[in-house]
Amino acid sequence: RVRRVRASAVLLLTSAGLVAAAVAAAQPAPPHRKAVAEEAPAAPPPHGVVLVAAGASAGLDRDLGALPSARMSFYLPDGFTLSAIGAAKQLGAERASSSAVLVGYRRAVERGRLAAWAGLEAGGGVAISGPITGAMTDAPMALVVPHLGASVQATRAVALGIELSLPEALVHQGGAYTLQALPAAWLGALFDL
Asked: What is d(CA 26, CA 29) in angstroms, rounded to the nearest whole number?
């Protein structure tokens, strides 16, 4: 009789263990920490990008050679751009400067840390030149500026980039209109806003 009681107890414990194992198997597994981390909200996209760059550009007076130049551009997320460009140089008794404001559109492609873009801008400006001690002459300009650029991400919010452009300028100088190419190149940094 004692053996029967022991056998019944063993059978009861075995059955209870099997039921507990079945219930545990039916319960859904808790989510992995990695999956929770993947569901975390992504960082918000930047409100725009600012390019601050220095380089060189051609001037109306070819005798002065390339002019040291600076460019500051604001690139909106929807592709529209706003840029300001300035250049100045003094060589001997001659000096020249130019400035322009441009608006346009660009398309960009990103692959990991690398990015490339192409765009087209248009606007107006003025070029000033003449002797240091004499009267300066100014030449209003209308510009169409195709440009290409590339960058590599240095930090989360800063990239290092290069931009090349080939502006075509319609210049009013000396009572006549002339069309001149004013190629330029800049190296600088792009900052996410």
From this structure: 9
User: Rounded to the nearest 5 degrees, what angle is found at the Cα of 182, between the Cα atoms of 176 and 185?
Assistant: 165
Cα–Cα distance list, 17 to 7, 27, 61, 128 (Å)? 15, 16, 95, 94
Closest alpha carbon to 84 in 44, 143, 168: 143
Of 72, 50, 84, the closest CA to residue 193 belongs to 50
Q: In the predicted model, what is the mean pLDDT of the chain?
A: 83
Write the pLDDT tens digit of every residue in 62-81.
888 899 999 999 999 999 99
Q: Are 87 and 98 in contact (CB under 8 A)?
A: yes
In residues, how long is the chain? 193
pLDDT in tens, 153-163: 999 999 999 99
Q: What is the pLDDT of residues 4-23, one digit of tens each?
A: 444 444 444 455 444 444 44
The H or E element that residue 7 is part of is: helix 2-26
The pLDDT value given to residue 46: 66
Tokens 């597994």 locate to 29
Residue 73 CB coordination number (10 Å) = 25
Contact 131, 114 (CB under 8 A): no
Amino acid in position 58: A
The pTM of this model reads 0.73
Contact yes or no for 139/123 (Cβ under 8 A) = no
